[in-house]
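Shipment paperwork, digital attachment
Item: protein structure file
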Amino acid sequence: MRTEGDTWDIKTGVGSTALFVAAARALAGDEPGALAEDPFAEDFLRAAGAEWSALLDGDVPGHPLTETEFGKDFQEFQAARTKYFDDYARTAAADGIRQVVIVAAGLDARAYRLPWPDGTVVYELDRPQVLDFKRAVLAGNGDEPRATRREIAVDLRDDWPRALRDNGFDPSAPTAWLVEGLLVYLPADATEQLFDTIHSLSAPGSRVAVEQMDLLSESAAAAFTEHADETEHGRNEWIRLIYNEPRSEATGWFGARGWTAERVDVPDYLRANGRPAPGRQADGLVSTLVSLVTAVRS
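Attachment content:
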């Protein structure tokens, strides 16, 4: 259960969800015709411990990520989300943006995966324990970033804009913001503050990509908590970590402030990319609840 001022590392609380997501990315990337691949996801999981390696090796019978409708949907969703944000980052780079900020970066390895143009600086904001784990794994494997990578070890509940500026961020230059897998872990007022801060730090030509999730209905929440044994890394634990409350919708919020915003629901995005997608009324499936938004500031 979330509490005011709670803390975590990569294996506990909100931090542990990064490993669950990395597992979904790794498994989805092995499927024929996968929408996206993240070769670094496996490295993080094997460094995290035997339970995660066993999952990758198919040695965890009955795991919700591999043997339930929820798990298969979650893998497809993660592949779709990864492709969406990868394409967004590539487009921003092609349009001349050289300043990228990944908010709550977790185990995002885009600084290492994507072909960034010379002069690109990628800022990664997250708790120090999460960044320390990621750095140790990548350095241990001899991996090098393909852009200038600057870690901003800060809790988003603290003064992260100041920490960003102190590390060279230039608010007068166009920025590409990535807000992936974050909003559900923020209360509604913190979401509003995050959007407002991004707006205030964004020069003309900046853009932001946001993943957002609809409010869980009672039936959807019940479906997520249906199986009592799916606890530590499954649906039961996840439902206790999120803030299931109404929050600002990104398309409308940024659109009202002069940004040009476009939204796509994940099932529609999957179908547009030739992948199967569940119906909109399916309960307990993440992809039916999530939409992806890109907004550009004139």
